[in-house]
Amino acid sequence: MVLRLGFRLSLPASHATEIFCQFRIQCVPVAFFSTGFVGDKPLLVRDFIRAALYDTKNGYFSKPSGPVGVLEKSIRFSQIQGREAYLQYLDTIYKQHDVAWFTPVELFKPWYAHAIAEAILRTANLSVPLRIYEIGGGSGTCAKCILDYMLLNAPERVYNNLDYISVEISPSLAKRQLETVGEVSSHLYRYRVENRDALDRSGWQADPNPCWVIMLEVLDNLPHDLVYSPDQISPWMETWIEKESDSFKVSEIYKPLQDTLIAQCIKIIGLDKDGSTQPTRFLSATRKIWSKVFPKPRKAWLPTGCLQLLEVLHWALPKMSLVSSDFSYLPDVRIMGDRAPLVSTKKDGITVDHISYLDAKGDSDIFFPTDFFLLERIDHHSSGWTSEPKNSGSSKPIKLRRSIILDTAAFIEQFGLPSKTRTKDGYNPLLDDFKNTKFYLSVPTHNVV
């Protein structure tokens, strides 16, 4: 089974040398310019998405109430008959809390976070103090459950010397995290929240010591860029958003590639090696004719926010080990382009999916699928490894990371207690329902370049 919304479970022209003009399409009437998302100057798509999600006054994650639900107590799965009863229970708690979604770490607390804690304990070098960074800690449930697990299961010296830092961009969520973790007073001596943007390098201080970084449902909400090509052979162009003069409308405009982050991401993904981006002499006459007679516009979403974040993390924490979980696939996406997002608004218990990301007005979640093999390439690239040999004395490149991709079920079976989320008839929502989610684990090697 593949859930409709995975983690956010919710029930009922020419070639480059010839491109001098900007292409304009998709005029969308909107009424949110008072929020400041789009001003007099055009915005790159990633800046628009960042504002729509994280603007301090009007962003989706900046509302005092917040879209993330918190359960007062853990679900006792052993007392639930099966899948139908479980879905009825979820329907009830969604109506009671009137939130957009519950994260898996919340639905399956404490067991989901305990599995992550066990993975860290099995892998970490416990001869040095354990330091954990969590990016985007939500309601603080993951941090509290991991600290609980360390208190009860780790050697006493590990818990006593533990340092847990949450890097949270949302002021309201940062406050909630402290409240959640503070339910156990001893945890507060080992925990702190830094209310800042993890993508901003100026907020980090380089730490050469080993550490762990946790990112749960973070990649899906990171800013992305959009590139466009009017046909099968024309070069990719970057997408900007601007407000039309004397109008309450916004339009996409396309410009030749100039942004360094977009260009870097295109190179990592390999879009620059696509035959469609090569000079005309390498293109067959048949393909050129076909593209002119039957032009097929192309769009691709680029995880530039992920690239930016991993480059910052590898710079600040060169010996970090990383555990990340997120969507690997999103069904029913109505927006065009490879790796396109879902944009949804939930109001009065009803979820509405939008046909354009430009409909996001600060009340909409914008979340993307994660290509985990692409994530691995970005991770290795950001760590300083490339496919080329690093020194003349070696015929093979030196890898700086070891990584593995696991289905959520495989991760829980390896590190957790799957029996704790099993219902009476054997149905296990954590293993059975989250088929469109994966875990990514990455640790440094001992190679020296």
UniProtKB/TrEMBL annotation:
The keyword Amino-acid biosynthesis does not apply. GO terms for biological process: methylation. One of its GO terms (molecular function) is protein-arginine omega-N symmetric methyltransferase activity. Keywords: Methyltransferase, Mitochondrion, Transferase. Signal peptide: none annotated. Its EC number is 2.1.1.320. One of its GO terms (cellular component) is mitochondrion. It is found in: Mitochondrion. It catalyses: L-arginyl-[protein] + 2 S-adenosyl-L-methionine = N(omega),N(omega)'-dimethyl-L-arginyl-[protein] + 2 S-adenosyl-L-homocysteine + 2 H(+). PANTHER family: PROTEIN ARGININE METHYLTRANSFERASE NDUFAF7 HOMOLOG, MITOCHONDRIAL (PTHR12049:SF5), PROTEIN ARGININE METHYLTRANSFERASE NDUFAF7, MITOCHONDRIAL (PTHR12049). Belongs to the NDUFAF7 family. Arginine methyltransferase involved in the assembly or stability of mitochondrial NADH:ubiquinone oxidoreductase complex (complex I). This is Protein arginine methyltransferase NDUFAF7. It comes from Dendrobium nobile (Orchid).
